[in-house]
């Protein structure tokens, strides 16, 4: 028995060493990039207290002084993608830069290995609902279901709960869902700068949008989409430009781990899960080994006493002695009535009889009649 436990511990240690060696091999290129002077890196890390669901981002929640001058936070939405997200991760790895990824639940379920790679690279993984719907066009219950299903799917892909960071699709929040985020201790993130990478496939245009907004604001939370080709191809040049112009990247992490997903709304469960849900809510079956006692019919309820009926019956209202109030029509109504009585009604005349419709004969009959009269 002792020898079996020792072998199990030895195999566990060997597995941990193998996984560590794999992570080192995956990040070898990033380590070389960090050693160079051209790497952007991460200047500092800020731990966010997510209690009561605070909001960040000047577009919706105001500037709370989280960042200093020339400090930026890189955020990526709508992923992971099997084609563009690895390019984004490679660019960040070469510059030793950490970012925040807001994943969509069904995308994480489709590509769980890429989702776990994001976590292994040291990035923060938040949530972005289950299917990226506009929650302002849905009911509050369906909105809560979207949030919780997204957290559940991403937790399954990561094999651990994600960070309690959340971003509304299309930045479309509602008061009810903001209250739900406060109850769940989810920090809600808006943006300061939009790369507008979903409107173009040109990396140069995406680069120009970000730098113009940064020169105007000087700092902020930048919104990218790692599923867009313009971001995947233009991010290496953008990171080099940020380094050349003196900008610094800040990494956001939560102070506490995220809570697991709450129970899903029963009305939105898949059809094959509804019978299971009904069976779970039903009473447990009786033990077949025990003899069940015969059921007894319940006796009909006895008539309540008169005193109880008197206390329950509503009091009888006495008829009022006042005469009913005579309502007089207004002067305008009286004037309209007088005009209606004075105006003679038009006499209904019978409709004229419809004229007989001429018979339209076929062409061959007309030709026959014409030839017969010649």
List the helices and strands and how they pair.
Blueprint: H1 2-26, H2 28-35, E1 44-48, E2 55-56, E3 71-77, H3 85-94, E4 100-103, H4 105-110, H5 112-120, E5 124-127, H6 140-158, E6 165-166, H7 175-183, E7 187-189, E8 193-194, H8 203-217, E9 220-225, H9 229-244, E10 248-254, H10 274-281, H11 306-312, H12 331-342, H13 363-372
Parallel strand pairs: 1-10, 2-7, 3-4, 3-9, 3-10, 4-5, 6-7, 8-9
List low-confidence stretches: 14-33, 264-294
Distance between the termini: 127 Å
* Rg over C-alpha atoms, rounded to the nearest angstrom: 37 Å
What is the tally of helical segments?
Answer: 13
Proportion of beta-strand residues: 5-15%
Structural class: alpha/beta
Residue share in helix: 40-55%
- The topology string of helices and strands comes to HHEEEHEHHEHEHEEHEHEHHHH
Main sheet attributes: strand count, strand direction, barrel closure:
7 strands, parallel
Provide the residue-averaged pLDDT: 79
What's the count of strands?
10
* Outline type: extended
